[in-house]
What we know:
Elements: E1 3-7, H1 11-23, E2 27-32, H2 35-44, E3 46-52, E4 56-62, E5 64-68, H3 72-77, E6 83-86, H4 93-110, E7 116-120, H5 127-137, H6 141-150, E8 151-153, E9 156-159, E10 175-178, E11 182-186, E12 200-202, H7 206-229, H8 235-239, H9 242-262, H10 268-282, H11 291-294, H12 298-301, H13 309-316, H14 323-333, H15 341-363, H16 368-381
Parallel strand pairs: 1-2, 1-6, 2-5, 3-10, 6-7, 7-8, 11-12
Antiparallel strand pairs: 3-4, 9-11
Helix pairs in contact: 4-5, 7-9, 7-10, 7-14, 9-10, 9-13, 9-14, 14-16, 15-16
Amino acid sequence: MKKAVHFGAGNIGRGFIGLLLHRAGYEVVFADVVASLIDDINASHAYRIIVLDEDVQTETVDNVRAVLLDSAACRQELVDAEIITTAVGLGNLANLAAIIAEGLKLRRDQNPSAVVNIMACENAIRATTTLKQEILSHSDAELTAWIENHVGFADVAVDRIAPNRAGYASEPLDAVVERYFEWDIEAPTLKGDVTIPGATFVQQLDPYLERKLFILNGAHATAAFAGYRKHYATILDAMQDSEIANIVTRVQHEAIIGLVNRYPEFNMETLGRYAESVRARFLNPHILDDVARVGRDPLRKLSAQDRLVRPLLLARQVSEETPGLVNAIALGLCYDNPGDEAAVQLQQKLRDFGVKETVTRITGISQETILDEIVAAFDKWQVFA
């Protein structure tokens, strides 16, 4: 049987990547740092997926086992795996790289002719490329040459919400997820034949990365920033406010204008349906997503190439009016959550430099017209302080 090693046995690892690999006929070996989780998986060799939609459904994933992440057994599992995937968080890839590099060295010595594909399934742009660079930094010239010939590194875009387990999970290994998922894989960088039912293989990933970042992540951040400003606890609460729902819809529409202008494979109708499906997901009554979690780290979310500023600038190439994205950026500036370190830093910048200078420093926006619009929107939202 084919084997896949997946780093990270959390809700997304078990409920999304592990599930699709299981459906594709792979034995899935999880690697994680939590010893009790490893023991539970090895005791049962199976777990349940609980899918939250209009109704609640379950599915069983079997033929699974687990190893402690930084162990000799973990490295040895990489020797005969066909696929290696991760869902550990972008910040943990650097630490993971040394372990994978050591496993690939064992593979070169023990199984030198077979190919393997690596995919970092993180909520970040081109995380696999980042992981590859980190792995190569731990490799000598000989190992690097072997890796280039025998290891595929495919960038991916992934999307599935794994909400709070409370009220739905009754067993320790239950993975709670929404029904919707998307796994886009950039096919040209794969080695050999890879088939994963449910995944979409594309020739160029950039359009799909930006579609998700702008239309989903940008809308999600907007709902969180606005929801926090209007004192709502969850995204569901925020999206039931007609003013916030209208701003989110407008943010998506403006992002679509920029994407259609940039990528010929996209059109307004197709992206409009995608945007509508995103809003429907935000209104799933089973998913109570905390606005503080979704709004976390506003400095990153307001940066030049991220989910709000980048689509704003693309849309301004086509239209002079982007009130949705202007409001979203202003709401991000208003995000003053004292429990969020980045939000605290942002508020200090506003006090030190003023709104206009802070916007330029964080976003890179220098056009006076846009800056004036953001400042005006920022002032408007102060009423909800």
